Amino acid sequence: MANEIKIRPATGTWSVRAGGAVLGESTNALELTEGDYPPVIYFPRADIAMAFLEPSETTSTCPFKGKASYYSIVAKSGPIADAVWSYEDPIAAVAEIKDYLAFYPSKVAVEKI
User: Fold this and answer.
1) Are 33 and 56 in contact (CB under 8 A)?
2) DSSP element (H, E) containing 26
3) Assuming Cys at both sites, which of 2, 29, 104, 112 could form a disulfide with 64, CB separation 3.0 to 4.6 Å?
4) Between 2 and 63, the higher pLDDT residue
5) Residues 97/7, Cβ–Cβ less than 8 Å
6) Model-level pTM?
7) What ranges do the domains of the chain cover?
């Protein structure tokens, strides 16, 4: 599976919105595809309003990417638990996603604009 992971620039401008707020826009996002899973857009931390994110105690481990840390989104309507993940120290094969954040599309809107 590790050799099935592909990372490439996500062309165009991408935005992420949650709870009525724009959390960020980026022209430097990455698209990660892994096997048969839908593509995931990873946003550079520098392009996200980190003040809306609160670290969670949740973690998970992927044998092909490493240990993921999670964040909840602080929204006016209330917290959106574990809506964001990041590989703080990814394995070498996917080092490009270090300092990037991914968002669950079931919890936020990730769109190409």
Assistant:
1) no
2) strand 21-26
3) 2
4) 63
5) yes
6) 0.93
7) 2-112
